[in-house]
Amino acid sequence: MRAAEPRSGLRIRPFEASDQEAARSLILAGLGEQFGWIDEARNPDLDDIAAHYAAPGHAFVVVQLGDELVGTGALVSEGEGTGRLVRMSVSSEHRRRGVGRALVDYLVAEARRRGCSRLLVETNNDWYDAIGLYQHCGFVEYDRDAESVYLALPLDGVLSAEC
Questions:
Q1: DSSP summary character for residue 36
Q2: Fewer beta carbons below 10 Å: N end or C end of the chain?
Q3: Domain limits, the chain
Q4: d(CA 137, CA 108)
């Protein structure tokens, strides 16, 4: 996976160990804004991002604007040609400026490159901005329950062991 500069000044690149604290803080801040509180024990994967997202078929990326980390996202392989977007987050100061869209576009392209035939995402059913972003990027709702909405994006990938 290579770094990309999809929008003016934005740089999307693979996660590095030196990003650990900034990425963790950014994700937890976004969750805190949405829910009004954070139970850090419910997010143990954030204590060691590399350990949880460095497995084959997984990719964790960060978005930089200058020297500032402003976004995160991960592509996780679920096997059988299916990938899932997780840990998507954009700092509050940089929302509605194309960062989230650039991040989704980058991870969709990475999923295609890996041969995924479909990409999934789950978010809280009252997280309207996230749902709108995914729908704007072509994801379609396929299920909903009391807490979550589930969306999918079919891809043109040829099945691969990487996805």
A1: S
A2: N
A3: 10-154
A4: 9
Work out the burial of residue 130: count CB atoms within 10 Å of its CB; fewer than 13 is exposed, 13-18 middle, 19 or more buried. Answer: buried
3-state DSSP percent of the chain in helix, strand and coil, to 5: 35, 35, 30
pLDDT tens-place values along the chain, 163 residues long:
555 444 568 899 999 999 999 999 989 888 877 777 677 777 888 999 999 988 787 999 999 998 899 999 999 999 889 999 999 999 888 788 889 999 999 999 999 999 999 999 999 998 899 999 999 999 999 999 999 999 999 997 555 555 6
Do 116 and 78 meet the contact criterion of CB atoms below 8 Å apart?
no
**CATH class of residue range 10-154:** alpha beta
C-alpha–C-alpha distance, residues 105 and 100, integer Å: 9
